[in-house]
Amino acid sequence: MTETPIDVLILGAGINGAGLFRDLCEQGLTCVIADKGDYGSGTSAAPSRLIHGGIKYLETGEFRLVAQSTLERNLLLRNAPHCVHPLPTVIPIFSWFKGIGAALRTLMGSTTAPRARGAVLMKIGLALYDFYGARARVMPRHALWGRARALAEIPPLTPRIVAAGRYYDATVAHPERLVLELMQDGLRASPASRAFNHCALLGAEGATVRLRAVDGTELALRPRVVINAAGPWIDAVNARLGLQTRLIGGTKGSHILLDHPALLAALKGRMIYFEADDGRICLVFDYLGRALVGSTDTRADDPDGVRCEDGEIDYFLQSLRSLLPGLAFDRSQIVYAYSGIRPLPASDGTAAGLISRDHSAPVIEPSDARDWPVISLVGGKWTTFRGFAEEVADTVLSRLGRARRVSTRDLPIGGGRDYPADPAVWAAEAGGAPGRAATLLARYGTTARAILQAEGTAPTSLEDAPDYTLEELGWLSRNEQVQGLEDLVMRRTALAVTGRLSMRDLDRIAGLLAEVLNWDAPRREAELAQVRARLTGRHHMRL
């Protein structure tokens, strides 16, 4: 087997791996990135869909992390306007002075979180948040509402509140697509680089790392640096490389999505970020026409079997009933549920919610049995992926004796490239059926132009999700490394997560993929059975 020399091998194609791949490719390095599943299919597919500065990190004194996070949030609003959007956020407040002492203890290192945060404490926190978010500011500052104003703005809110804070963060509409677009940007910048999904890591020996691609082809790579970006699987990947580590001590975050028009009408595009009755932080906001509710934060260590459990669902529903007694909540409203393991640093004895979301990149130097260093990407959060990638890329460049030639700070991502100042004008010029160009621009950014051309003048809509077309899905299947039915319905599109996927549409999409990917009848049926079982079993869908 011929060995291929490369500069960097990245194992794991979640948001951290993809962000680093793009950065290194922009510097002219030859990189290979590989994931055992699809791009962005692990922890990166299970976030709260927020791009945020981390207001709660102020309590733990992580001011540098808040400063970095608010800057990166502001940059993403500019660089990925098709995926990242401002999100006005309301915090209900239930007292005036509670929590000050507990917050001070937490700030000084206590391992228990405050159980209440009064208006005085929230006012200080929101002012600090505005201060740290001043760099590259794109959104308004905070406001403090009195009880009457808060209840007038959101009538179903519990009358137990005494005030409410309003500030701005952001949401990412299609996180899995943003991961994919970072990969595509890297390949565009460095044509000699390669990206593999559904790829197995076979092992390593001496100078060589062996992989098996989805088509069965075996690859022998000779990297100068290996990056372990496998998230909660980091220790398992290091073991496959012959290294024994204990770097990860993850926590589980679960979410549910509700079909609840009355709740969405009350939210009016805002998120409510609130304390549940036990003091834990929860959230609810309008995500692509569904009410997204999250998140739990409990110790867990099985990323392959993680799912949203019945007890977590009960917790969410009861928290909503307590917060919004003017509305009804029950299990029949759930259209989708998901869960993931946060790849946080191993941290025994600390409350799950207080484990730092900061990042680190420990290095295992080469040895007699291994010619390359292994850099593991530990921790971090969705919002800070670009800054984390920049730090690690600079380390890699230094080790390889190369200089940085491109900054990613102001670099558009994927469909954010050449994004129009006036989307309505762009949509009118792009053609297509009335409103169709605007729909696709919001979904794919400027990549929408190619999809519009593929659709032609008479596209064929899905039966139960008519804003998606077979021509659109066919274009995605041919151009975005779709390997299976799950890739298409769960990550290239929002059909599954919004609960709008029906059995008849799933069957039709499977037929389309069978044509594009040349599947025989048994493979088509196997794909259908696998996806149906996953969606109904792990994600609580009713197909």
Describe this structure as you would to a colleague:
By secondary structure, the protein is α+β, with helices and mostly antiparallel strands. It has 17 helices and 20 strands. The strands form 3 sheets. Strands 3, 4, 5, 6, 11, 12, 13, 14, 15 and 16 form a 10-stranded mixed β-sheet that branches. The mean pLDDT is 91.
Layout of secondary structure:
Elements: E1 3-11, H1 15-26, E2 31-34, E3 50-51, H2 63-79, E4 84-93, H3 100-107, H4 119-132, E5 143-146, H5 147-153, E6 163-172, H6 175-189, E7 194-196, E8 200-205, E9 208-212, E10 218-228, H7 234-240, E11 251-258, H8 261-267, E12 271-275, E13 281-287, E14 290-294, E15 298-299, H9 310-323, E16 334-342, E17 359-360, E18 363-364, E19 374-376, E20 378-379, H10 385-400, H11 423-430, H12 436-444, H13 448-455, H14 470-479, H15 485-492, H16 503-517, H17 521-537
Parallel strand pairs: 1-2, 1-10, 2-7, 4-12, 10-19
Antiparallel strand pairs: 3-6, 4-6, 5-6, 8-9, 9-10, 11-14, 11-15, 11-16, 12-13, 13-14, 17-20, 18-19
Helix pairs in contact: 1-6, 1-10, 11-12, 12-13, 13-14, 14-16, 16-17
